[in-house]
């Protein structure tokens, strides 16, 4: 436990306004080691930790600690050197230090809020904490997979993700060069109703925003195509099997309107269509749908989904899956 009340020495007050104001920060309740050899300061907390621990895991900090400070009046917390974490949020520093000091990161990541995992990606990339960065990327890649099989097996997209966290992760993933998670991330962001999206768009840099809007527009077109191809009339016009059984044609029409009736005001996007599409929960035999028509419909849906998956990274990032790292 840190001391309840301590006073920073005069030199800890930033005169240049460049870093967090250490004087308003208080010692963190947990991350405070009495034998710590450095105090890290955010605008909220002070963390007394060990230089050797930081240097072991971060080449950036190791190099920083090795810069000679002779003749320079360094900031101190009483007799301990104090480093102001300029540009790092308190959440980022806190979660990074918890990851360093004993937390089983792989386990914790499974239940960690996305905003915290994003903070950890950001700060571990900035200071080159390679092992932590690798674990966080592996976790994010499981949430936002790069193969359609893994996407279908994952349940993250079936939950209700927070728009703010997802849009923020787009920005951080670009900055930290974790492109492999971006296609699914963009897809999930595209599926929010526009009323949500308009509030989030200003958080994206202009180029990302353009790609996002163009990609979303393409996804809307894909959804239209699925609906169009689900209609028996179009299936007849197209190269699909012609069905002349009135009951089958009627049932397809009913099933389509049944699925779409809850999507009057927003779009059902391609990967959110149930596996069997409009035939989900419909027994073809029982409902008078010919086996051939059902098979043709499922093949059509699978083919559009697969095609859309293959094009997803190109539509949002101008790259193929295999070009993402
Ligand atoms: Zn039929």
Describe the structure.
- By secondary structure, the protein is α/β, with parallel strands linked by helices.
- The chain folds into two domains: 1-143, Potassium Channel Kv1.1, Chain A (2-Layer Sandwich), CATH 3.30.710.10; 145-325, no CATH class.
- Helices cover 52% and strands 7% of the residues.
- The chain contains 14 helices and five strands.
- It has helices spanning 51-57, 59-66, 90-100, 105-111, 114-126, 130-143, 148-153, 163-175, 182-190, 194-200, 206-230, 232-237, 246-260, 291-317; strands at residues 26-32, 38-41, 45-49, 76-77, 80-84.
- Strands 1-3-2-5-4 form a five-stranded mixed sheet.
- A hairpin with a 3-residue loop joins β2 (38-41) and β3 (45-49).
- It is elongated.
- The protein starts with 25 loop residues before the first strand and ends in an 8-residue tail after the last helix.
- Residues 3-22 have low confidence and may be disordered.
- The structure holds zinc ion.
- Zinc ion (ZN) is lined by residues 243, 245, 248, 289-290, 293.
List the helices and strands and how they pair.
Layout (H helix, E strand, L loop, with lengths): L25 E7 L5 E4 L3 E5 L1 H7 L1 H8 L9 E2 L2 E5 L5 H11 L4 H7 L2 H13 L3 H14 L4 H6 L9 H13 L6 H9 L3 H7 L5 H25 L1 H6 L8 H15 L30 H27 L8
| Distinct helical segment count | 14
Bound small molecules, which ones? Answer: zinc ion
Beta content: 5-15%
What is the structural class?
Answer: alpha/beta
Multimerization state: single chain
Low-confidence stretches: 3-22
Question: How many domains make up the 3D coordinates?
Answer: 2
Mean pLDDT metric: 86
Protein name: BTB domain-containing protein
InterPro entries: BTB/POZ_dom, SKP1/BTB/POZ_sf
Region (Disordered): 1-28
Domain BTB: 36-101
């Amino acid at each position: 436990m840190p001391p309840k009340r301590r006073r920073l020495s005069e030199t800890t007050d930033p005169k240049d306004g460049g870093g967090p104001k250490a004087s308003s920060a208080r010692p963190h309740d947990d991350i405070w080691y009495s034998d710590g050899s450095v105090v890290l300061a955010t605008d909220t907390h002070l963390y007394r930790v060990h230089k050797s621990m930081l240097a072991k895991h971060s080449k950036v900090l190791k190099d920083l600690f090795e810069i000679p400070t002779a003749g320079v009046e360094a900031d101190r917390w009483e007799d301990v050197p104090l480093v102001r974490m300029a540009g790092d949020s308190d959440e980022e520093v806190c979660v990074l230090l918890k990851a360093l000091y004993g937390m089983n990161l792989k386990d914790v990541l499974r239940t960690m809020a996305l905003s915290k995992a994003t903070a950890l990606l950001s700060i571990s990339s900035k200071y080159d904490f390679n092992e932590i960065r690798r674990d966080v990327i592996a976790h994010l890649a499981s949430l936002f997979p790069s193969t359609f099989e893994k996407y279908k097996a994952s349940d993250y997209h079936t939950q209700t993700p927070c728009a703010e966290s997802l849009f923020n992760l787009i920005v951080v993933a670009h900055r930290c060069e974790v492109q492999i998670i971006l296609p699914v991330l963009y897809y999930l962001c595209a599926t929010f109703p526009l009323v949500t999206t308009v509030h989030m768009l200003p958080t994206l840099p202009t180029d990302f925003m353009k790609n996002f809007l163009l990609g979303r527009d393409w996804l809307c077109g894909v959804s239209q195509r699925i609906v169009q191809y689900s209609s028996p009339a179009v299936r007849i016009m197209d190269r699909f099997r012609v069905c002349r059984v009135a009951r089958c044609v009627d049932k397809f029409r009913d099933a389509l309107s049944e699925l779409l009736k809850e999507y009057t005001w927003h779009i059902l996007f391609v990967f959110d269509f149930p596996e069997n599409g409009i035939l989900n929960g419909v027994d073809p035999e029982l409902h008078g749908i010919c086996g051939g028509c059902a098979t043709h419909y499922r093949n059509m849906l699978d083919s559009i989904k697969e095609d859309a998956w293959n094009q997803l990274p190109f539509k949002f990032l101008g790259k193929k899956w295999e070009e993402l790292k």
